[in-house]
Design goal:
single chain; Alpha-Beta Plaits; 4-stranded antiparallel sheet; 5-stranded antiparallel sheet; Trigger factor, domain 2
Amino acid sequence: MKVTIENKKGLNKDLKVFVDKKTMNTYMDDKYEEIKGTVNLKGFRPGKVPREILKRQFGKAVFNEVLDKVIKDTSTKALEENKIKPAGQPKLDLKTYGEDKDLEYIISVTELPKVEIKSIENIKFDQYSVKIDNSESEKRIKEIAKNQPNFKDASENTKAKEGDLVALDYTATVDNKTFKGGEGKNTQLTLGKDLFLKGFDKQLLGVKKGDEKTVEATLPENFPEKELINKKAKFVCKILTIKNPEETKIDDEFAKNLGAKDLKDLKSLISKQINDEYTNSLDRLSKNQILKEIERFKVSEIPENLIEDEIKILSQGMSEEDAKKSRKNFEDVAKKRIKVGLVLNEFGEKNQIKVTEQELQAEVQKQIRMMPGQEKMVMDFYQKNPSALSSLRGTVYEEKILKLIKEKAKPNKKEISKDEAEKILKQSQLQEYSRPNKDEKKVEDKKLSSSKTKPKSTKIKAPVKKSKKVSKK
């Protein structure tokens, strides 16, 4: 194989690849030897079919397969030997090819620019730790206790009031006809929470144990029997018990019911939980500071094809006219994103950062836990969408890179109180929403909203082993 570089213009290069016919014929011989042992033709013993017969039967298919293999092998090798990292899929133009002929083709490639990452170690960012006062954890524990009240049986003839727990049996009808799902036994309602049907428990205020009360309520939009949706139903309720709430005692037993060893352990766990909540939010600010610093890095030239691809992503869902109006701002956003992605990728490669299958699956499980009740849907989403899994891999890759950057860069360590943390987060939120670049703000909003249902897109790709596809022009 002989490779020469032609038409070098900035990041764009043409590589002329020449493979002599002797090498091509060797590939052809190997392929015919391979298929000779697998082909069964009438009148010939397995493995004894003459080359000429095979050529007449399968010649065209064999040559096409060999041509694809040679192009794949030689194009990959040509790029690697010349240390060219393609920005996007290279284009191929076949000049000379055919059986018993030399192969000559041109690879037109846009190269990724050279990126300087030494200054990463000079990046400065704020690294916060939040000091949680004991009173904060005690306040959180009281809130938990308030939302988990104990109940005791009310005295005889006590009328139910808001906050009481009422147990009842009911039979429901629509137009005097019973229906599927219209019966309930020992149904328990906390009056005032309105968790059963809208306005239902309000009508039970004042009932006593043993009373029979008819309640009217409209069946909801998600009622299983579709023909009864929005119909008014009558519920004949038999009141079984009435229980009054009593203040939950905060002691070791209460702590054990929440999974702690004792009350002291619970306070420690709650304090850590509060700390983690603020630390995670503040870590995102630190990450944004690092990314903003990287945006200032100098990159010699950003490939036009990457800019165009990014603009297409940014303008998704917009009309052609709106996309045209926003193009200049989208170009600026695209260049920033691509620059950050190039720097992070280069840093990741230099430091041999990889994402293992275990790390990827752990992130999938994390996404599943974030959507309780929809676990199967989330799992199916990733199983059926390889691109979504690839995007998630990119997210993990980026987080690993940023973690290492934090270790190598220069943190400005600050210990702050919970109130100070809230103030910092509030200020950052105000700054975010007063950002002058409205188009970039819209893009970020779209990313945030979409990340609730699917993994966010990422500017960088985690390295994975895969065969490279080459298309013939």
